[in-house]
Design goal:
Helix content is 16%, strand content 43%.
């Protein structure tokens, strides 16, 4: 193998693929990135056996070849090379080392043969459904829900975004739902052509994180391929393949309240600032605050035996019976960060019932917050 590649191009692909590699693994080959030089490009692949990412960059290839090298080490080397430099990668036939050169710097890294590198994707025929969807829709689906993904490993079926088709004909939508049992986020986007037969799936949290990085600057369409146990995303220069969570997502519609008659409309920015300030006093892990709703105003308060008390009022469009309800302040702030409109709408029933939260500027999104004792 012998090739030359621009440092910026190599760093771009390495930054994506190395993120898949776990820092600690008992299988040495999984610490490595696969480098395959051929034609006019360099193809990089990394996997943790649940998630695989491949990326390609244009390179001047003198000799074809394939090998694997430590992903994090190579990434750190390239990251520290001077901007604008050209990287020369070379490996003699059957050698157990690879050399990486840039300017006067030379690095010699140990390799593992590429035939030990696991293949995850398999045959294209294994996918049941294939469709294209706008990158903007996929970004929105992720951004509006991922903050509610559970990190509790015992309930593994909540450790991702639940995606499924709902409705039929002109009302058909693609839903994304995430919940950790304390809050829930649901979004609906237009069902892409060809996605009618998509199975009910759960996309893992790590996959969601890495996919979001990949699509950050993409404006066009993304090809999605789905089967019952894995999903593939095909982008301009990268392909991400992931196993899906093998579990049953709970019946989330049962926890979305209907008929909550106590309604408050609040300035989104002012509400977030108030909650953030008042929660400074709340030292416990839950960062609990109490909200009292009265005619025309909300009073936010927090009490801590160590830190003292905090109270702040803000105006609100509320005309119901007085109501006091407690929330985890972090959950409120995470949700408000994704509200697009200038106002947010809270629909409540009583201090013990779930609160429905709507974004008047975006009817495709619904949030649910579970109250807590304060």
């Amino acid at each position: 193998m012998k090739l030359a590649i621009e440092r910026a191009a190599l760093l771009r692909s390495l930054s994506h693929v190395q993120a898949v590699v776990e820092r600690r693994t008992t299988i040495p080959i999984l610490s490595n990135v696969k480098l395959a030089a051929g034609g006019d490009g360099l193809h990089l692949t990394a996997t943790d056996m649940d998630l695989s990412m491949a990326s390609s960059e244009t390179a001047r290839v003198q000799d074809d070849g394939v090998t694997t090298v430590s992903a994090h080490t190579l990434f750190d080397i390239v990251r520290k090379l001077p901007d604008g430099s050209e990287v020369l990668i070379e490996q003699e036939p059957n050698a157990s080392e690879i050399s990486v050169r840039a300017g006067r710097a030379v690095f010699t890294l140990p390799c593992i043969k590429a035939d030990e590198f696991p293949a995850m994707d398999g045959d294209a025929e294994a996918y049941d459904v294939t469709f294209d969807m706008p990158a903007a829709d996929l970004r929105k689906l992720i951004d509006k829900t991922r903050f509610a993904i559970s990190t509790e490993e015992t309930r593994y079926y909540l450790n991702g975004i639940h995606v499924h088709a709902s409705g039929a004909g002109a009302t058909a939508v693609l839903r994304g739902v995430a919940t950790d049992g304390h809050r829930l986020a649901k979004i609906e986007i237009a069902l892409p052509d060809g996605a009618e037969g998509i199975p009910s799936i759960i996309i893992p949290r790590k996959t969601v994180t890495e996919l979001r990085k990949l699509i950050d600057a993409i404006d066009g369409e993304i090809r999605v391929k789905v089967s019952t146990n894995r999903i593939q995303f095909v982008l301009d220069q990268a392909v991400l393949v992931s196993r899906l969570i093998d579990g049953t997502f709970p019946d989330y519609e049962r926890v979305i309240p209907v008929g909550n008659e106590k309604v408050a409309a609040i300035d989104t920015k002012l509400f977030a600032e108030t909650v953030d300030r008042v929660s400074t006093i709340s030292t416990e892990r839950a960062r609990a605050i109490k909200l009292r709703f009265d005619d025309g105003r909300i009073t936010a308060s927090a009490v801590s035996t160590e830190a003292g008390r905090a109270v702040e009022e803000l105006d609100a469009d509320y005309a119901g019976e007085p109501l006091e309800i407690g929330f985890n302040s972090r959950y409120i702030l995470d949700m408000l960060a994704e509200v697009a409109g200038d106002q947010v709408r809270l629909e409540m029933a009583n201090p013990a019932a779930p609160t429905l939260v709507r974004d008047p500027a975006d009817g495709s999104v619904v949030y649910v917050l579970m109250p807590m004792r304060v």
